[in-house]
Design a protein that fits this description.
Layout (H helix, E strand, L loop, with lengths): L4 E16 L5 E17 L3 E5 L6 H8 L7 E6 L2 E2 L5 H10 E4 L13 H11 L5 H14 L16 H13 L5 E5 L7 H18 L2 E6 L2 H7 L2 E6 L2 E7 L10 H8 L42 H5 L5 E4 L2 E3 L7
Parallel strand pairs: 3-8, 3-9, 6-7, 7-8
Antiparallel strand pairs: 1-2, 1-4, 4-5, 9-10, 10-12, 11-12
Helix pairs in contact: 3-4, 3-5, 4-5, 5-6
Length: about 325
Amino acid sequence: MSDSILLSVRNLTVHFPVMKGLLRPRQVGVVRAVDGISFDLRKGETLGLVGESGCGKSTTGKAILHLLKADAGQILLDGEETASLSPPAFRQYRRKAQMIFQDPYASLNPRMTVGKIVEEPLIVHGLGDPQERRERVRDLLETVGLEARAARRYPHAFSGGQRQRIGIARALAVQPEFIICDEPVSALDVSVQAQILNLLRHLQQSRGLAYLFIAHDLSVVRYMSDRVAVMYLGKIVETLPSESLGASARHPYTRMLLEAIPVPDPDRPASRPESGPSGEPPDPLRLPTGCRFRSRCPIAVEECTLAEPELRQTAPGSWAACHRAEP
């Protein structure tokens, strides 16, 4: 992993208006899916982005690739603002940044052969002649653990894990610098998850890739990531090194996620506190004042209702947005 910054996200904001009415629709509210988040991704690094469903993780990934339009903020690759790129320069950005999607069943075109699916990015970017592209497709399929003859078959002939390997091969086709992994193993069996995760780690080491690894499972994120950013209702509430993801976590929401990890030993006593965080997240249309987590927080005080906490350093490399987080 390098110390140089590959991707910088500054104050990224994505809001979705909520409309009501059929003939004359009017806006009745707004969902702050991503609400002013900032982070850096170094070359060769894996940054895990974790949180409950609906917290804004996937929206963040899609906004970085400009699959969704951001309302505000900056996305910089190697220090260059991507929103203002000319069409040729933006095409180069798309070569450097690729995505592995969550659902391996929905992300592959059922009317195209596997070979055509993996070859399509090469055609779009004008890379190689037909013979070179065919050889490249065979190499990519073998790299991700599939036979070269799989190129002649259609996606329905493959299992979920094999389809995800096809999606990985497609993402690798244009030799990107970083890949957004949008919950790439959440739809797979546990045994297959381990194979895909190990494949992603091997590819990172052999190709120097950087990953933004999006997931809701902290145990998976801890295995894959160098650093972890914890997201809650559109905000990053804590960032810390993956080796510190445990007793060193300072935000009560991070602790709640850690306590939710199943314990595989039936003889081990439960370690959850009797008065731990509980309940459902608040209505995203009616966010609470102050801290967004206070309605579920066991240590909330009056200050939490008055002011929204800012990220502050709690340890070297660790930051938490909590009024009561102590170094």
